[in-house]
Amino acid sequence: MGLFKKYVSQTRKPEGFLGKMMVNGMNGGYAKMSDWGLSHLKNIAPSEILEVGCGGGRNAGELMKKYPDAKLTAIDYSTVSVGKATEYNKAMIESGRCVVRQGDVSALDLPEEKFELATAFETIYFWPGLEKCFAEVAKVLKPGGYFMIVNESDGTDETSLKFEKIIDGMKCYTPEAIESALKSAGFSKVRSDHHKSKPWITMLAKK
Question: Whole-model pTM?
């Protein structure tokens, strides 16, 4: 495997030195896309938030800024990501507002109906079966809770489809495919928005 392929493959599960390099770049590299996604959270005032696939931890921090009275649980199945997200949100963890832990979205070890909002930024490409994982998220959301997905790819853009061929286990999804999986997993209402000039998509689903 060439060095480039080894590096970009770290987006799936960052490990070792290359994984640390990848995670260090995530917070800045996805900031504009993440902020665009966050702008879709309107008329929602959660007290408990779940951030799934937290990466470097920046989005968890932004969610706590947006909702200063909320508590947040951030999970990732990469120990490298958990370490970086813990470092990034050190002050919030020490204040008792944030917990960062290792976790697997296909088998969430969390209390049922605990959260009002769950988020997933640039991560569902690697989830092992959308319906199964979305059902796990639905299980830990309260009735009426929301699940927001923000992706850099709309499932059709050439750049992401090239990476899909390089990175083992990566799958880019169209908004239609994501909506279908969400409804099959128990979500009642799904809204989608496509960025006007980029292939970015935001999906907001209500349980």
Answer: 0.90
Walk along the chain (207 residues) and give the pLDDT tens digit of each residue. 454 444 444 454 544 544 444 555 566 668 999 999 999 999 999 999 999 999 899 999 999 999 999 999 999 988 889 999 999 999 999 999 999 999 999 999 999 999 999 999 999 999 999 999 999 999 999 999 999 999 999 999 998 888 788 777 889 999 999 999 999 999 999 999 999 999 999 999 999
End-to-end CA distance of the chain: 42
Contacts of 164 (CB under 8 A, 6+ apart): 125, 170, 171, 172
- Domains (range + CATH), the chain: 3-9+17-37+45-99+109-206 (3.40.50.150)
Beta strands in 19-114 (DSSP E): 48-52, 71-76, 98-102
- Judge contact between 160 and 172, C-beta under 8 A: yes
